[in-house]
Amino acid sequence: MHSAQDSTAIRPVMRGRTALELAFWLLAFAAILLFPRKLIILNEIAILALFALSLDLILGYAGVLSLGHAAFLGLGAYTAGLFAKHMNGDPLTGLAVSAAVTGLAGFLSSFLVLRGTDLTRLMVTLGLALLLGEAANKASWLTGGADGLQGITMQPLLGQFAFDLAGRTAYLYSLVTLLILFLIARVIVASPFGMALRAIRDNPLRARAIGVPVSHRLVTVYTIAAVYAGIAGALLAQTTQFVSLDVLELHRSADVLLVLVIGGTGYLYGGIIGALAFKLLQDAIASATPQYWQFWIGLLLVILVLTGRERIRAALTGISRRLAFGRATAGSAP
Amino acid sequence: MTSPVLETRGLTKRFGGLTATRDVSLQLAPGARHALIGPNGAGKTTFVNLLTGIFPASSGTTSLDGRDITRLKPEARVRRGLARTFQINQLFANLTVFETLGLAVNEQRGHGGRLWTSFAGNRETQSRIEALAGDFGLTDLLGTRTVELAYGRQRLLEIATAFACRPRVLLLDEPAAGVPEAERHDLLATIARLPREVAILLIEHDMDLVFSFAETITVLVEGAVLTSGPAAQIAEDRQVKAAYLGEDAHV
């Protein structure tokens, strides 16, 4: 990436990282064959990971804290659900419509959200999500209110792959969408724009003083993040063929923050790792002690934050280094 | 005198009943070496914030290269060629030297909003970063994160970053503040070497630095210009001595 730093010591680590990444995605796809009875939860994980990726773009890269990110998840879910029910059951068309609607909502609300400091942002994002939740509740003629939006039927994906009960199509659909959006996000964070976001996170005053149009950049990233969250919501609606008010609730916004706390902010795998850990933990604890699972999740989170989540990242770097140098020594052996 | 590159006319800033900057008119010729001095609380920092657009002016105008910039946002002024450094380092703690300089270079070239290209993939961008690092003695530290730099190096990066914006006018706000004696010489030499095409306004407490660097000096007292003129003349000015040393000082 940086010619000045691409010393030979860095390259093997980069190669090790690539190998680890490749293995990760291969495993994610192989899960269809390896864990055929876990595809429902895997689908939920992929969607949560996309939602967390969306939050990481604004929180981890640009330093914008939101406590109402579920507004976009919910808006995307209801848009996709209503579109499928009343207009057209094609999944990809629905995904595009949800992306457009949430992108517009993200763009418009960004002007409210991005004023002020962290605390005001927290309150404004929280407030907007509450407003949207209450509106969805009140408009039961449209959303089904507390009963949820029912009667969504999806056409087969690409006209070929019907959504099955085991969740094969659903998981593959969510996973491919996640992968594509992940790769796009990776290009974005490595661009001049992405670097400007990190500069804004570190020091908005100086960013402005070197000519970065701070509010303009934040509006752009907030809109992109809204699109990502909206697509996550659309996937949720389409793959479960149901939308309830739950998608707009505060715990959704809080959960996705927890996911980033677990996985780490400011690197794109943070959301994926966090989503995987969060969902699997929730699943394991819930089946062990169905009544008290929230207690154990809470306890684990406290321990995790106290011992430092940097360790997850350090462990990963360690693994990729071992992969890299392990192979390098094997290659140089006579 | 050729037409000034930076000019203020009657620049005034009031905070409620307090007038922090009072009717300041100042001209910087192209390539000027101009110092702005004054006792603590004279309004030097407020004046810098007015010039750079952090505060809106209550009245008066600022122009750069003959164009009125009074109502422009800070980032727009930077793009027109007015850059500054800060008295207390304002850097990007988690970015490397390479990334910090590259950021400023990208913004200067108008590439800062690009989403689909690599951050430093452009050859021209890369060579500019490397040239800047060379000029400021940071070549070996390109891959180092800012938080890990020694304080004196951070001070150099502070100036290099402003300089990466290719300014016509550079405001140096107490560039030597807090720099340990051992690293001071490097810093002063770097400031002295800054190219003549850039007009520099130095805001400084340190009289040694002021008199070794500046050709023209403006003295600010209680928000207003007390006097302004060639360095040698200011050095002899009784009013200036009085402002710094007290009314009855015999010098």
Keywords:
heterodimer, A: about 325 residues, mainly alpha, 14 helices, disordered C terminus, B: about 250 residues, alpha/beta, Rossmann fold, 6-stranded mixed β-sheet, 10 strands, about 35% helix
Question: What does this 3D model show about the protein?
Answer:
The complex is a heterodimer of chains A (334) and B (251). Chain A has 334 residues and is an all-alpha fold. Chain A has one domain (35-269). Chain A contains 14 helices and no strands. In chain A, helix 1 (10-34) crosses helix 14, helix 3 (70-86) packs across helix 10 (214-240) and helix 8 crosses helix 10 (214-240). Chain A is globular, with a radius of gyration of 21 Å. With 251 residues, chain B is an alpha/beta fold. Chain B has a domain at 6-92 and 166-245: P-loop containing nucleotide triphosphate hydrolases (Rossmann fold, 3-Layer(aba) Sandwich). Chain B is 35% helix and 24% strand. Chain B is built from nine helices and ten strands. In chain B, helix 5 (151-163) runs parallel beside helix 6 (181-193). Chain B starts with 5 loop residues before the first strand and ends in a 6-residue tail after the last helix. In chain B, 45% of the residues are buried. Classes of the chains: A mainly alpha (334), B alpha/beta (251). Chain A binds chain B through residues 1-5, 187-188, 190-196, 198-199, 202-203, 205-214, 216-217, 220, and chain B through 52, 73-75, 78-79, 83-84, 86, 90-96, 98-100, 102-104, 106-108, 111-120, 126, 129-130, 133, 142-143, 161-162, 164-165.
Give a quick summary of the entry.
The complex is a heterodimer of chains A (334) and B (251). With 334 residues, chain A is an all-alpha fold.
Sum up the overall morphology of chain B in one term.
Answer: globular
Shape of chain A: globular
Say how many strands of chain A there are.
0
Distance between the termini of chain A: 31 Å
Oligomer: heterodimer
User: Unreliable runs of chain A, pLDDT <50, ≥5 residues?
Assistant: 1-8, 327-334
How would you write the strand order of the largest sheet of chain B?
A: 6-7-8-3-9-10
Biggest chain-to-chain interface with counts: A-B, 31 and 45 residues
Which regions of chain B contain 5 or more consecutive residues with pLDDT less than 50?
none
Class by alpha and beta content of chain B:
alpha/beta
Radius of gyration of chain A: 21 Å
What would CATH call the architecture of the domain at 6-92 and 166-245 in chain B? 3-Layer(aba) Sandwich
Main sheet characteristics of chain B: 6 strands, mixed
Largest sheet of chain A: none
Radius of gyration of chain B: 19 Å
Helix and strand composition category of chain A? mainly alpha
Q: Output mean pLDDT of chain A.
A: 86
Task: State the fourth-level CATH superfamily of the domain at 6-92 and 166-245 in chain B.
Answer: P-loop containing nucleotide triphosphate hydrolases
Overall structural domain count of chain A? 1
Q: What is the terminal-to-terminal distance of chain B? A: 33 Å
Helix and strand pattern of chain B: EEEHEEHEHHHEHEHEEHH
